[in-house]
Amino acid sequence: MGNKVIPYGRQDITHEDINAVIETLQSDFLTQGPKIKEFEKKFAESVEAKYAVAVNNATAGLHIAVMALGLKEGDRVITTPITFAASANCVRFVGGEVWFADIDRDTYLLSLERTKELIESKPKGFFKGIIPVDFAGLPIQLEGFKQLADMHGLWILEDACHAPGGYFLDSKKQKQYCGNGIYADAAVFSFHPVKHIACGEGGMVTTNSEDVYKKLLLLRSHGITKENMSENHGGWFYEMQTLGFNYRITDFQAALGISQLARNKNGVAKRNEIAKRYKDAFNGRLKFQVLPDNSLNAHHLFVIEVDNRKELYDYLHQNNIYAQIHYIPVHQLPYYKTIGYNSDTDLSNSEDYYSKCISLPMYPTLTEEEQEFVIETIMAFSSKNN
Ligand SMILES: *Cc1c(COP(=O)(O)O)cnc(C)c1O
């Protein structure tokens, strides 16, 4: 131990995965073929959503999702500072304004209270949407957000990139899978290799709205369609009905996604075993994300907080444990600092969290021995530094 690098997250590629890709490479379709539809159908079923649209990455998914939800230039949208920049950037792609509301200091998720305060501090109609994030894999309780959004006529786009397979229980004790479209208008998932399902690059948008679904299909593929045409010159004919993009995924990536998706439930279970061992080891000694029991955490990350975070980060890296920081608050990135839409909003929870957070290795193939080494290394650091 100590020589091999232990990253904070990594993909798991099996022989079945490889065979699925090879089979598709030898088939008639490398793209726009049956594997994409199969992946969409199976993914929609897995999160209990009506529709799913596969895309080339989650950032593209976020872009066409905000467009399908009707975001226009100048529209204002609220999101959390503790997320990957793409959750906010998608609003900027169409010239919208990004406003940040602070996180809950215990769960690290966008605070419902703070979101409500921000909305109520402005005239009616000021905001158009909310982008909550299932940060670290902890499903955000969307029921309250949905009530708030309905009161103010806002849409909700759930950034579920960290949470495929996670769910929370709503007030009726119903299991609400992340991205199931009950309390959000659409949701986005990522298939980047550090996420649960690895396609190399890839993403999925889910929704229960047929209207949003149809818009997503158009926007994914140049705005071109053979359906609902105003005229038809023959078998070759198509119409470009809106300005769209080429945000398609390939069939061989979809084949990999299908194969990976089949193992995700087990992967989430493994991640929860790893989380339990961390919690048992750190309970009462180190602060970590408060994890409510009324949900299944998909555990993309396991985040702890320490006062001497930079020292711990360097110490872990010296020991080949490549812990990572999630995230630098988005409002503090130079691009957003320059724009500074709501620079007077109190985001001190996010800033305080950022000064202490560090994400530990968390992926299904992390061995008990490797995790033991991670825990021992952190404990050795803590006893030296206290
Ligand atoms: C990874 C991630 C994205 C972007 O995903 P890509 O597939 O790399 O574009 C967006 N939001 C969050 C919260 C993420 O973690």
TrEMBL record:
Family note: Belongs to the DegT/DnrJ/EryC1 family.
Annotated signal peptide: none
Cited SUPFAM superfamilies: PLP-dependent transferases (SSF53383)
PANTHER family, per database record: DTDP-4-AMINO-4,6-DIDEOXYGALACTOSE TRANSAMINASE (PTHR30244:SF34), TRANSAMINASE (PTHR30244)
Molecular functions (GO terms): transaminase activity
Top-level taxon: Bacteria
Top class in the EC scheme: transferase
Lineage: Bacteria, Pseudomonadati, Bacteroidota, Flavobacteriia, Flavobacteriales
Name under which the protein is recorded: UDP-4-amino-4, 6-dideoxy-N-acetyl-beta-L-altrosamine transaminase
Record-listed E.C. numbers: 2.6.1.92
Record keywords, A-Z: Aminotransferase, Pyridoxal phosphate, Transferase
